[in-house]
Design brief:
8-stranded antiparallel sheet, globular, disordered N terminus, disordered C terminus
Length: 1898
């Protein structure tokens, strides 16, 4: 019954409503009343024209009551008897009134008024210029049309600039003049605008001028007009049609002359100047495209308008790209662009030829297909570059796979090569066809659904490849989402579920994540004043972003499109609805003008405040104490802090896996899929990007480089890396790296190969794979590994990182290692894999070694077996923060293949090991794969460090009271004793103390150590270490706490404590600033510290004393006061790489601050368009530690996505920077106020768009950072070697005004053992600098200082400033050094102040050195000091005879060299125990600088003797160690060598030359091989350097006259005077300069012609002139010698080769013409007698005499050269003589030249030699007998006078004249008395005589 009643009421109401909408219920006839408007349209917001309703004929006394039946659309207010209607929102409302029922109604339609134009912008053109006064001009017009919605359709039109454009009442716009005007259309209070741009008419031509010929090609050219205006029609005219005509823009030349072609349109015109010439040449083509096809090239025939009779000259601008023949045929030669020119009759034309390479490429390299199903076909991605685009496709095995136009179809299981060929160029792809197996794949691996609204469902599509297409669907959690039989998934509640689809027994999976649909409003409360507007921001979580807004009281607060408008005082609720969910905020409109805010508290706070979460904003509520209104400030979301990825579903062969991250704040999960790992999974997960299969016959040097390294270069390895074809070669599709062994100097010498892809193939992330077989045998270490392309980006190894994919020991062939090296200190993470027993090892067959490198993980494989995973690493530079993870593995790396022999890790081969096939590292291929993209937004895994608790007394030391007796030699003991470098001791625990008895201190201060490890060290804690200790006699002990797992960095820096014989308590307090470590180690070091006295230690305690003091920021080691200025430090989520930086963006919603994730890190700030002030987005860093009253430099790099201005503030200074899209460096200088206490740097970036900033730096405006030490030791490094003893160093502010102070106990024996250093100083080439500082010492001593190169990487420490010394006394002195930077610019120069044993003077006395006010500045160029000329004959070496001991000398003996040095008895004596590894490990240095002048000559003499045969070397070096001269000295045991050397200076004059004598390990100058250098005692004396000829500014020598003799002492009458000789270490030679000749007895000729030389320096000769050379020269063997004239820098100016015949004296006569090139200084005449040709020269002698060199007239000819017989006796070989080789003059003279016209009877000479007695020397006997008894033999008078024995038979009364007369008479008789029989016999005995002569021992 109730249902029927309700239904009846409903029908009545609906009927009544229908009647109302149909026009209202008719009024009662007797009333005769009506409404003034029964239907009307009203605009929303039209307050000026409200709708007013009233009743017509209202009876008197009657009242109306107006009612709106839809107040959401329109309301009505009673004003008297009238009703005033207010429109609120679009829709219809019924307004009714009357005096009875039924009411009279008005249907009100509420519309939102709008107006639109058919155009918002348009372009018109000005009226054309009038050509006659009668013409009427009108502008260009356009009709605008307005579409009006609203009550009033009338439109009002206006123009903002009627001088530009007008508009009539109907919207027609007419142009007036150039400019812009806004045309506005208004209706119903709404307006819209069309922007009208009026442009001037314009006309231009593509050519301003042209040249035409009168015939053929080039006689016509087409002009192309560009028209701006309405009319596009052009009128063409010519100024002279007889010269040139024009039609439709085509201009044709008629006859020679000039004309003007005019084009007109829209009243404007343009001209082209035409020149017509007879015979003008033109080419038929302007541009030609040619292609290179392998080694062949295309051609193109070019033509001209020249007649056959004309001669056309064709040329090419670049014949490497294109050539052209005489007929105009162009042929391509190389890729690029060339210009072809045709010239004829003085006229020319050009054609541009572009040559492009031809290529055919296929993107894929490996494809996997199936025999049937969807994977049966595949379409390749290919492209062709070349003339023809047609491609020929070919399959190597059509039974396996066919191809048609790039589409591959699988046929059967197997492998085929698909080849594409086009234009003669091919590429291929390998196709592997596998057996079909059913598959199922889903169209996505993951879906996102929502609990309500759109996006609540999704239908997943499954692609089934198999017989049964039916799919069975399941959801792992139906409460979260359910799936029906058709794959339609419906979300239920938030969470994640796994949807599976199964068909044919195969399953595919995808994840569905369901989010709760939400509408979250930015604020709960809005407090507004009347007229205010506010934008309501709503975050919509859901698939639909459509939003509906509603106000509960539109009279108070209305909302339209999310904008709230405050209407009147009151309150309203605003509701926002999306996806069926509604959220509400409260709006309060008040007239309170000055609010007094307080934070919400208690229940209000709990109700209204919202805590920010990872994803959602928070709110902070404030309440006005005056009006009780509320406002809220927004707290930005915190952002998720996701951890590392972990696998939750493993990938299988057929199904993908899943891994997830969990947020540590909110436990939210982030997931990603993992690809299935079936066969060919590598190809599916990765794309092959590069490979080398070594298919050719040699290594591809487009991809690979050879490396060259000496033995011992790294890891104490034995091999030399070379590029020999015997060590590295490609053969049969394999790369071979072969280690070889040879015997050199009786020792095994190893060579091997090492190649890399640096600069050619480098990759960041991917799979790196090698298929290889390794060598077998002890000492082999093959490796496939990687290093960063830019090793300096994070710092050199190990900071840069290293990836070792594979390393195998040759002695353990079943185990491989995968390793990462990184960090500072050096840290490594290493895994290994051993093959299963019975499997062929790595040396028996090829195995595949691989490493997969993702941004946050490395995975190492062998044959696709994963054996090691690592994801935790770090890197940092000393003094800087840790670089953000994943550095250093976030940069490109290149690959290396090498085979090492021996080393500290792998061991060394045995001497008798064979090096054959077993020593081969064979590589089948190298491949690199990469994924399409990588997620680089990764976080460093958090590894929890578990720290143990202390004992009940708070002590972390175990058994610190020594109550328990332990054996310190056992590994499981708490206390342990350790030894190093020869240390030895025993330790025992008794009587609650530890007693250490040392027997050897070793060579280092930690030679004996007492340690306890496993001490928990917590980051940020303060610790106290205390202990009691004493010694049996006073001595020192060094205490510290180190980190064994972190490269032994020090948590407690080493402290030297002075132990006495009385027990004392020692205390050390320190802060733990490093990361927490469970394995700290306390150390008591008792090694080499000057005593081995027994030590007693007890009561050791380590306790925590609270928190560490906050580390204050200062200046970084590079001088920068801004921390993390390169934006690469910091791992905090949401602040990645933004350590030390903060930002403020709350005033600009949507602004984002981050750091780019590219290889170069840059600050990236994105600012939305809503920004309205630079200060609304700021990035800043607090606590910049700059000081007051100083000058600084601010610098940074910046750019933006468009031109904009940013500001930077620091220390109260503001700098504007105008940014562009180009990265630019900005630099500003500023000075801080004296009262500055703290400062920050702030970037004001509130300018719309994206801004990038990098390399932010604030440095002192000085080259030395913190030179006054006002910031402590910031910027400096203090180095103290273990061999020196420094008790303390500080910046002293008590006794000094902030000065560096160091207490030194022992300097050690080297100057560099103690140093104060600062790096990062920039010195620029050729600039002058002044270095100054103040210093003093409590004892008089010297220190040494220098600005020098950083030789950390290559041991090159070149001192740019020289190495001046400062003599310190008790008072401060200022020391200065002015110098010029002569080397290349160095931005990393080091200031080094050496405080060790300067000048070799070790100071073992305790003293203090103080240094302050270090300053370096640029200065004006200085004139080189003019030094007084050196007196000729004066010794430039001071104390060269050592009469004053070591004054002016220093002994430099450096580790590993060892020597005892003394200066006594006028000698320097070096007792050398160890020569070290380099020649400079044992040196004698002259401390006073020498001046050597360019072009001058100096005589160098000294005496030197060694107890062992060996080589030493002396040299003259400038401050940068450039060699100015010197030589190697070969010493014979216990024989004093008298050095006499002429030094000719060819290099520029230098006034800071150091003379050094090196006695360390000597190496061959050419081969760098070690020369036998035994330890010995060496005595040096009488070192003298005398200037013997001028150089430098001496006037040029006058021209040499013809026939002037240039050679001095060419007949050797004065022995060796004016001559010098050179014998290299590789040669063995004895010389003799007697008997008017030079004799060279050559046992070994060396390896090059110049290894043995006779020289005369300082010849003045003219370029291009001719000279006559004459000499006599002979040799005891057939050989060639070289004559050369050499200039400065070994420049060759001329010379000749001379061929010698055995035992023939050649009279040489040659005309030598010098080359016509500049001669710098004088020339050197050189005769080279060393090794020439490939045949090794045997032992022999060469004799040279009568050398003459004269200037010859032009055209002069040489005399005829002759040869005469002369026996030249060869020297004894080393096997024939046991005597040492010496440079003496007491050898038996060789027989002189015989008279060519006579015969010599040698019989008597032989006979008399038989009577030689043992007591007489053969030399004496032969000569005396020849003189008295054998007058037939000729003997020179000079020889007789030189040999005393030859005069034994002469009487004392004989004078020299008589002797001479006797000789001449005897000579005459020898020919007169000769008998015929003797003559006949002479020929028979001659050969016997020669034989016996060769046997005479001379």
């Amino acid at each position: 019954m109730k249902k029927k009643v309700h239904r009846s009421i409903t029908v009545l109401i609906l009927t009544f409503m229908l009647m109302l909408f149909a026009g209202g219920i008719p009024a009662l006839a007797e009333n005769s009343i009506s409404i003034n408007n029964s239907r009307c349209t009203v605009n929303i917001g039209d307050e000026e024209n409200p709708l007013v309703l009233w009743i017509n004929n209202l009876p008197e006394g009657k009242k109306t009551r107006w009612v709106s039946w839809n107040e959401n659309v329109a309301t009505v207010e009673q004003e008297g008897e009238k009703g005033v209607v207010t429109a609120l929102r679009k829709g219809k409302a019924i307004i009714s009134s009357g005096i009875g029922f039924p009411r009279i109604t008005c249907v009100v339609t509420v519309v939102e008024p709008s107006i639109k134009l058919n155009k918002t912008t348009t372009v018109l053109y000005c009226a054309p210029a009038l050509e006659s006064s009668k013409a009427v001009s009108s502008g260009n017009t356009i009709q605008l049309k307005a579409t009006v919605k609203g009550a009033n359709k009338d439109t009002v039109w206006n123009s903002s600039n009627k001088d530009v454009a007008t508009v009539d009442k109907d919207g027609k716009v007419t142009s007036v003049s150039a400019g812009t005007a806004n045309i506005t259309a208004t209706a119903n209070g709404k307006s819209t605008v069309c922007k009208v741009t009026v442009k001037d008419n314009a006309l231009s031509l593509n050519l301003d001028e042209m040249q035409l010929s009168t015939k053929g090609i080039g006689s016509s050219i087409k002009l192309v007009p560009t028209i701006i205006g309405v009319n596009k029609k052009v009128t063409w005219t010519t100024s002279d049609a007889t010269i040139a005509t024009v039609k439709g823009g085509k201009v044709t030349g008629k006859k020679a002359g000039e004309a003007y072609i005019t084009a007109k349109a829209n009243g404007v015109s343009a001209e082209c100047h035409v020149k017509v010439e007879e015979g003008l040449i033109s080419i038929n083509e302007e541009h030609v495209q040619l292609y290179m096809i392998n080694d062949t090239a295309e051609t193109k025939q070019l033509k001209t308008n020249a007649s056959k009779a004309d001669a056309v000259m064709w040329t090419s601008s670049d014949e490497k790209i294109a050539i052209v023949d005489s007929k105009g045929v162009v042929s391509a030669r190389g890729v690029g662009t060339a210009v072809i020119t045709a010239a004829c009759g003085g006229k020319m034309d050009t054609c541009t030829v572009k040559v492009t390479g031809t290529a055919t490429s296929i993107a894929e390299k490996i494809i996997y297909l199936k025999t049937k199903g969807a994977a049966k076909t595949y379409t390749l991605d290919w492209c062709v570059t070349g003339r023809k685009s047609a491609v020929k496709w070919k399959s190597s095995n059509t039974k396996v796979a066919s191809v048609n136009n790039g589409k591959i179809t699988a046929k059967k299981v197997g492998t085929a090569i698909i080849t594409a060929e086009a234009n003669g160029v091919t590429d291929n792809v390998t196709v592997t066809v596998q057996e079909f197996s059913p598959t199922i794949a889903l169209n996505q691996s993951e879906y996102m659904l929502y609990t309500k609204g759109k996006g609540n469902t999704v239908t997943i599509k499954a692609v089934v490849d198999g017989a049964n297409k039916k799919v069975v669907w399941k959801s792992s959690n139906g409460e979260i989402a359910e799936v029906n039989a058709k794959g339609k998934v419906t979300a239920k509640k938030p969470g994640r579920t796994l949807i599976t689809a199964e068909a044919n027994g195969v399953i595919a999976k995808c994840w569905v994540r369901v989010k709760e649909s939400k509408v979250t409003l930015e604020k709960k409360y809005y407090l507004m004043n009347i007229g205010d507007k506010a934008t309501l921001v709503a975050d919509i979580v859901g698939a639909s972003q459509s939003v509906k807004y509603k106000s509960s009281n539109a009279k108070v607060a209305a909302i339209t499109k999310g904008v709230i408008t405050a209407k009147k005082v009151g309150s309203a609720d605003i509701s926002v609805t999306a996806n069926g969910i509604t959220s509400v905020c409260h709006v309060m409109v008040t007239d309170c003008k000055e609010h007094d805010w307080r934070l919400a508290e208690g229940a209000e706070k709990e109700k209204d405040d919202i805590v920010a979460t990872c994803e959602e904003r928070g709110l902070t509520t404030y309440i006005c104490t005056k009006c009780n209104g509320k406002k809220q400030e927004i707290l930005e979301p915190l952002g998720h802090q996701f951890g590392r990825w972990t696998v939750i579903v493993k990938a299988t062969e057929n199904a993908a896996g899943l891994e997830k991250q969990i947020c540590s704040r909110c436990d939210a999960e982030n997931t990603r899929s993992m690809p299935a790992k079936g066969k060919g999974y590598i190809a599916e997960a990765y794309k092959l990007v590069w490979e080398d299969k070594f298919d050719g016959d040699k290594l591809n040097l487009n991809d690979w480089n050879f490396e060259y390294h000496e033995p011992g270069w790294v890891n104490a390895e034995l091999q030399e890396y070379v590029d020999s074809k015997d060590n590295i070669y490609v053969q049969d599709g394999k790369l071979y790296i072969q280690a070889l062994k040879e015997i050199r100097d009786g020792k095994a010498y190893y060579t091997s190969g090492r190649i890399n892809t640096k600069g050619k193939k480098n990759y960041q992330y991917g799979r790196f794979e090698v298929s290889a077989k390794v060598p077998s045998g002890k000492g082999f270490l093959p490796a496939f590994w990687m290093m960063p392309e830019d090793e300096s980006y994070y710092g050199q190894w190990p900071k840069c990182g290293e990836i070792d994919v594979m390393e195998v020991h040759g002695s353990a062939l079943s185990t491989t290692y995968g390793t990462l090296h990184f960090g500072e200190p050096h840290t490594q993470k290493q895994g290994s894999y051993t093959l299963p027993e019975g499997e062929e090892n790595f040396g028996e067959k090829f195995h595949v070694f691989a490493c997969e490198w993702d941004p946050d993980e490395f995975r190492f494989y062998v044959d696709d077996v994963l054996f090691y995973t690592v994801n935790d690493w770090f890197t940092q530079k000393p003094g800087f923060g840790k670089v953000a993870y994943p550095a250093p593995y976030d940069q490109p790396f290149y690959m290396i293949l090498n085979l090492a022999v021996g080393g500290s890790w792998v061991g060394y081969p045995d001497e008798d090991d064979k090096f054959e096939e077993n020593a081969q590292f064979v590589i089948d291929y190298v491949r690199v794969y990469q994924k399409d993209d990588y997620d680089t937004d990764v976080d460093k895994p958090e590894n929890e460090v578990k720290l143990r608790d202390p004992d009940e007394t708070g002590n972390y030391i175990i058994n610190g009271d020594f109550a328990k007796v332990e054996d310190l030699t056992k590994e499981d003991s708490n206390w342990q004793i350790l030894f190093a470098n020869g240390g030895a001791a025993t330790a025992e625990i008794s009587d609650n103390a530890l007693h250490i008895t040392s027997t050897s201190a070793g060579t280092v201060n930690y030679g004996v150590q007492i340690v306890q490890a496993n001490l928990p060290m917590e980051n940020g804690a303060k610790y106290r270490l205390t202990y009691d200790a004493y010694a049996d006699e006073a001595r020192t002990m060094i205490t510290g706490i180190s980190a064994p797992d972190r490269g032994y960095i020090r948590y407690l820096e080493d402290k030297t404590v002075n132990l006495t014989t009385e027990k004392q308590t020692y205390e050390h307090i320190f802060d733990m600033t490093a990361d927490s470590d469970a394995n700290g180690r306390v150390e008591f070091n008792l090694g080499n510290q000057g005593s081995i006295a027994k030590v007693h230690i007890s009561n050791v305690r380590l306790t925590k004393e609270g928190d560490a003091e906050k580390e204050e920021k200062g200046v970084l080691p590079d001088g920068n006061y801004v921390y993390n200025g390169q934006f690469n430090e910091g791992n905090e989520p949401g602040r990645l790489r933004l350590a030390y930086w903060d930002w403020e963006t709350r005033q600009c919603k949507g602004a984002k601050v981050s750091v780019t994730n590219d290889s170069i890190r840059e600050l990236k700030v994105v600012v939305p368009d809503s920004v309205n002030g630079l200060d609304q987005v700021t990035v800043f860093q607090e606590d910049i530690a700059i000081s007051g009253g100083k000058k600084y430099i601010l610098s940074f790099d910046a750019y933006a996505d468009g031109n904009k201005t940013i500001q930077t503030t620091v220390a109260g200074k503001t700098f504007d920077s105008a940014l562009t899209t180009a990265k630019t460096s900005y630099k500003y200088e500023f000075e801080t106020p004296t009262d500055l206490s703290a400062s920050k740097i702030c970037f004001l970036l509130g300018n719309a768009g994206t801004t990038y900033i990098d390399n932010v730096c604030v440095r002192e405006d000085c080259m030395i950072v913190n030179g006054d030490f006002s910031n402590g030791l910031l910027g400096y490094e203090v180095y103290v070697n273990d061999a020196a003893k420094v008790s303390d160093y500080i910046v002293d502010s008590l006794n000094e005004k902030d000065a560096f102070s160091m207490d030194i106990t022992d300097t050690g024996d080297q100057d560099w053992y103690i140093q104060l250093k600062q790096g990062g100083i920039k010195l620029e080439k050729d600039k002058w600098y002044k270095l100054s500082f103040d210093a003093k010492s409590t004892v008089d001593r010297e220190i040494m200082y220098a600005l020098q190169r950083d030789g950390t990487s290559d041991d090159d420490w070149t001192p740019y400033s020289g190495q001046p010394k400062a003599a310190l006394t008790a008072g401060f002195q200022t020391f200065e050094k002015v110098f010029q930077m002569k080397s290349d610019t160095d931005a990393n120069t080091i200031l080094s102040i050496s405080i060790g044993a300067v000048g070799g003077k070790q100071i073992a006395q305790k003293h203090t050195i103080v240094i302050d006010n270090i300053n370096l500045e640029e200065t004006e160029p200085q004139e080189e000091p003019v030094e007084p000329p050196v007196d000729p004959g004066a010794n430039m070496i001071q104390n060269g005879d050592f009469a004053e001991g070591d004054v002016h000398w220093t002994n430099a003996v450096t580790v590993p060299g060892e020597a005892d040095v003394s200066f006594a008895d006028g000698k320097a004596v070096y007792q050398i125990h160890n020569v070290g590894e380099e020649d400079w490990n044992v040196q004698l240095k002259h401390t006073e600088p020498l001046t050597l002048e360019q072009g001058a000559s100096y005589q160098v003499t000294m005496k030197i003797k060694s107890t062992e045969s060996r080589t030493v070397k002396y040299a003259f070096l400038n401050p940068t160690y450039d060699w100015y001269g010197g030589e190697d000295l070969v010493l014979t045991a216990n024989e004093e060598k008298a050095v006499d050397f002429k030094l000719n200076v060819e290099k520029p004059t230098e006034r800071k030359i150091t003379f050094v004598l090196s006695m360390g390990q000597i190496k061959d100058n050419e081969t760098s091989e070690l020369i036998s250098t035994p330890a010995s005692t060496i005595e040096i004396d009488d070192i003298c350097v005398v200037k013997i000829s001028e150089g430098g500014d001496t006037p040029e020598n006058p021209p040499v006259e013809v026939e002037t003799e240039l050679i001095q002492n060419g007949d050797f009458a004065s022995g060796k005077e004016k001559w010098s000789y050179y014998v290299d270490n590789t040669a063995t030679v004895t010389t003799d300069f007697t008997q008017n000749k030079a004799r060279y007895e050559i046992t070994k000729a060396g390896t090059a012609d110049w290894n043995v030389q006779l020289k005369q320096e300082g010849l003045t000769m003219e370029a291009g002139a001719s000279y006559k050379l004459e000499m006599k020269i002979g040799a005891s063997i057939d050989r060639d010698v070289k004559v050369a004239f050499m200039g400065a820098g070994d420049a060759w100016h001329g010379g000749t080769d001379i061929s010698l015949t055995k035992d023939k004296l050649k009279s040489v006569s040659r005309i030598i013409k010098l080359e016509d090139k500049e001669i710098m200084g004088t020339l050197s005449f050189q005769i080279s007698l060393g090794q020439l040709g490939e045949t090794e020269l045997v032992a022999h002698a060469v004799e040279i005499s009568d050398i003459s060199l004269t200037k010859a007239e032009s055209g002069a000819t040489a005399d005829e050269e002759t040869e005469t017989d002369q026996m030249i006796i060869s020297p004894e070989t080393e096997e024939e003589s046991n005597s040492e080789e010496t440079d003496t003059q007491d050898k038996q003279p060789v027989l002189e030249e015989e008279d060519s016209n006579s015969e010599t009877d040698t019989t008597s000479d032989v006979e008399e030699s038989e009577f030689t007695t043992e007591e007489e020397s053969p030399e004496t006997e032969t000569e005396s007998e020849t003189e008295e008894e054998s007058p037939e033999t000729e003997t020179e008078t000079e020889t007789e006078s030189e040999t005393e024995e030859s005069f034994e038979t002469e009487t004392e009364s004989e004078t020299e004249e008589e002797s001479s007369e006797t000789k001449s008479e005897t000579e005459e008789e020898s020919f007169e008395t000769e008998t015929e029989s003797e003559t006949e016999e002479s020929s028979e005995t001659k050969s016997e005589t020669e034989k016996e002569l060769s046997e005479i021992e001379l």
